[in-house]
Amino acid sequence: MDVTIPESRVAGRVRAPPSKSYTHRAILAAGYGDEATITDPLVSADTRATMRAVAAFGGSVDRGDDRLSVSGFDGRPDVPGDVIDCANSGTTTRLVTACGALADGLCVFTGDESLRSRPQGPLLDAIDQLSGRAESTRGNGQAPLVVGGGIGGGTVSIPGDVSSQYITALLMAGAVTDEGIEIELETELKSAPYVDITIEVLDGFGVVVERTADGFSVPGGQSYHPAGGEYAVPGDFSSMSYLLAAGAVAAADGDSVVVEGARPSAQGDSAIVDIIDSMGASVEWDRTAGEITVPRASLSGTVVDVGDTPDLLPTIAALGAVADGDTVIENCEHVRYKETDRVAAMAEELANLGASVTEKQDRLTVHGSESDLEGARVDGRHDHRIVMSLAVAGLVADGETTIAGGEHVDVSFPDFFDTLGSLGVTVSTSG
């Protein structure tokens, strides 16, 4: 689907969607337990993949109004009757791969072309260290994956600089093993706030995780039971970033964008508030009410390390194309291993809009003073975050910007374009 965004001014009050990261973890946590209700979940293409996996393991997920009722598999997943298709969801793949290692038989996981190109080797090696079976059918550390063996716990050594989701997967599975799992990190942990999210969710389900000198430890023999049988999902700061950026670059004169649902949590991507503030916008965050207000501002370039906040790179790059001076995004090599190579994608597509960009393996620099954005046809690269960030740039590009692959926002923010429309943007679609 092509989506066309004209140069626009925006204003109004909108609500951020629920967190995708929390929803994934909550669905699987409920699956590990007996019964639980998840309130305010994000229902999207990615989280539906996790729901399918819980069902394949012997649980069930029933959708109601703003809630999911989950009957779990009580710590021991059944051997699925078929291959589990994780579609485009890397989070689903990694979380359920460790879960599959608990099964007595073998589980097979696959997904679309993009997912089958993403690295899973360190997680497979960790399962092997736990005496489970974990193989890539092509021998390249990528899906399709064959996993099983009924792991009972133990100690694993794993790199922390490829994906924090490996750590999340092992912690979640380790809680229901007999011995528990101790994780020794071989390198610095990248995207550490995502593990903080995991620990927060597990705590909400009554599961204890311990931090150690070398990594993490989760005792075995635990059960997943949220207090009162319910777990509430907070708003998503990754998705909020596009709305806040839209306000900073395109709010109408004398007006602003107000984003609801912004209560504090462990989400590292809440850093977007400080980033936009550091670029010169007058951001007001009422943490008690959970509201962030952003008016348009004359932005200046900044330097941002995205080691812990990889999902913010596309948003920051779009902001940099509008700001004066250089915006330097550092420590970003791991952002190349997402739904697409997001470093290269933003460099190339912003350049198509007239931005001046310098790309290096671990750094992206956007030269805002040398950029003059003009509407053009750009490619969303089948990646929800690329699509939404290019839409932000399109708000200030001269003329109209047409983004190919607009339907991919369904991964994390299904109502994104409707939300832009509520702020005053005339969005048109075709194809």
Structure description:
This protein is α/β, with parallel strands linked by helices and 431 residues long. It has 2 domains: 2-17 and 235-430, UDP-n-acetylglucosamine1-carboxyvinyl-transferase, Chain (Alpha-beta prism); 20-232, Enolpyruvate transferase domain (UDP-n-acetylglucosamine1-carboxyvinyl-transferase, Chain), CATH 3.65.10.10. The chain has helices at residues 20-32, 45-56, 90-100, 121-129, 164-174, 192-204, 237-250, 271-278, 313-320, 342-352, 384-394, 416-422, and strands at 2-6, 12-15, 35-39, 60-64, 67-71, 84-85, 106-110, 133-136, 145-148, 154-158, 181-185, 210-211, 215-218, 230-232, 256-260, 284-286, 291-295, 303-305, 326-330, 356-360, 363-367, 377-379, 400-404, 428-430. The strands form 6 sheets. It has a 4-stranded mixed β-sheet with strand order 22-23-1-24, with helices on one face. Strand 4 (60-64) and strand 5 (67-71) form a beta hairpin. The chain is globular. The N and C termini lie close together (5 Å). The mean pLDDT is 97.
Give descriptors for this structure.
four-stranded mixed β-sheet, UDP-n-acetylglucosamine1-carboxyvinyl-transferase, Chain, 23% strand, 2 domains, 24 strands, 30% helix, 431 residues, alpha/beta, globular
Q: Kindly state the percentage of residues in helix.
A: 25-40%
Main sheet makeup: 4 strands, mixed
Judged by helices, strands and strand pairing, the structural class is alpha/beta
CATH class category name of the largest domain: Alpha Beta
GO molecular function, one term: 3-phosphoshikimate 1-carboxyvinyltransferase activity
Binding site for 3-phosphoshikimate: 20-21, 25, 163-165, 191, 311, 338
Catalytic activity: 3-phosphoshikimate + phosphoenolpyruvate = 5-O-(1-carboxyvinyl)-3-phosphoshikimate + phosphate
Pfam families: EPSP_synthase (PF00275)
